[in-house]
Design goal:
single chain; Recoverin, domain 1; 0% strand; binds calcium ion
Length: 97
């Protein structure tokens, strides 16, 4: 029998699931286009990415910055860079509240 998942394992699984929950909405199903990114940020990161949630230019800049291969889509590896930045910013807040 599989062991119960830990909090960290569950968090990792949630990140993967949330990416796919948004990426499948518009083809190709394993990539996020800008509209899907906007929905993901607005629904799943409204407190951590306030500017990008409210401001289209900020979202455009974020997309451009993350889209390393410039295909106007974010693959999971490109998306993970955003997750990593948010994680680091969150950790900084814990150190310097
Ligand atoms: Ca891309």
């Amino acid at each position: 029998m599989a062991q119960q998942q830990t909090a960290l394992e569950e968090s990792i699984e949630n990140i993967v699931n949330i990416f796919h929950q948004y990426s499948v909405r518009i083809e190709p199903r394993d990539l996020l286009n800008k509209k899907e990114l906007r929905n993901l940020v607005a629904n799943e990161l409204p407190n951590f990415l306030k500017k990008e949630t409210r401001n289209q230019t900020a979202l455009d800049d974020l997309m451009e910055d993350l889209d390393k291969n410039q295909d106007s889509q974010l693959d999971f590896n490109e998306f993970v860079v955003l997750v990593s930045r948010v994680l680091q910013a969150r950790q900084q807040q814990t150190l310097h509240p």
